[in-house]
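Hey, I was hoping to borrow your eyes for a little while. No rush at all, and the record is pasted right below:
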Amino acid sequence: MSDADGIVEANDTREEIMEATFRALSEHGYKDLRVRDIGEEMELSRQVIHYHFDGKYDLLSSFLAYIIDQYEGSVEVAEDMDPRSELDARIDQCLFGPEFEEFTHWDRMKVYHELYAHAQNDDEHRELFEEHYARLRGSVVAVIEDGIEQGVFREVNAERMGQLVTDVIHAARERRISLGHDDAPEEARAAIDEFVLDSLERGD
């Protein structure tokens, strides 16, 4: 087997473990999760988990990095997209997508937010979430700054505006997941349009 084949095989194994972790977390939750539960969700031997990871904590830390990478990598923005359209695309992706073959966006967000809730007691996981939050917020701020520079948006505090949009997105997702308010993302999207994005655009 070539080195390239070995890398592909290792990546495939890692992805299978990560997806098995999704299934196990969805069924058992973070508090009651055991490595054995993840192994039962895989066709591969449970020993492969112990080969790749030094216990449950190491596995969950890698899993958290995996879902963050997966989430961020799903945002697709064309290079020639105008600032308003880019903001729309980034906000929609955070609130409504992406979709995956096995789990929906909200299945994955449920697991994401459960780990998020436990991060307050875990320095390493909190740092991963903080970095992820900073990148999401930064991407919104950058688009607003570009729009201001191009004369498409009026002069505003881009940092504060980006903070507001990002916080509304997080609050809406949490309301849907924790309280079962299925219309929370749509309501948040309408409010962002009416009170934020529409007000950003310069009048003719």
